[in-house]
Amino acid sequence: MTKDGTLTRPAHTGVPALPGEAPPTCELREVLDRVGDKWSVLLMAVLGDGPRRYSELRRAVDGISQRMLTLTLRSLERDGLVVRTVTPSTPPRVDYELTEVGHTLSREVGALIRWSEAHREYISAARRSYDAEEAVREG
């Protein structure tokens, strides 16, 4: 039995994959996974204000671990959204900044963050109401 809105058969996109090539939906999903990841979104927003050093990013993004910050920055760099610049000094200075394409994404991410800030109280209230109703149903 399926829930309302559940597809019972796969949708056909009409875009055939070439032999040995991943279907386009897989590539799209990978991009969406990157740009929709909470740490990527927050880092893109911070970097939208200009280049930052690693330590500045760590302080600016509340709750991110050193390991997760490093992994996320590497992924953003790999995807061509962030560029890493090492300045030889003691200790070496490492700066991160958005690429031209990264800036286009940062503007979109900024809109998402502004929406989230404007509606977070509404979402919190809706969650409390839902949880209270669930507790009554279960209890």
Describe the protein's architecture and organization:
Helix 2 (38-47) crosses helix 5. The chain is built from 5 helices and 3 strands; from the N terminus they run H-H-E-H-H-E-E-H. The chain has 139 residues and is mostly helical. The protein is extended and about 60 Å long. It has helices at 24-36, 38-47, 54-60, 66-78, 100-138; strands at 52-53, 82-87, 93-98.
List low-pLDDT spans.
6-10
Radius of gyration from CA coordinates: 20 Å
Proportion of β residues?
5-15%
Spatial arrangement of strands, main beta sheet? 1-3-2
- Tally of separate helices: 5
Please describe the biggest sheet, giving its number of strands, its sense, and whether it closes into a barrel.
3 strands, antiparallel
Structural class by sheet pairing and helices: mainly alpha
Helix percentage: 55-70%
Shape type: extended
Mean pLDDT, all residues:
85
Order of helices and strands: HHEHHEEH
* End-to-end Cα distance: 26 Å
Number-wise, the strands total: 3
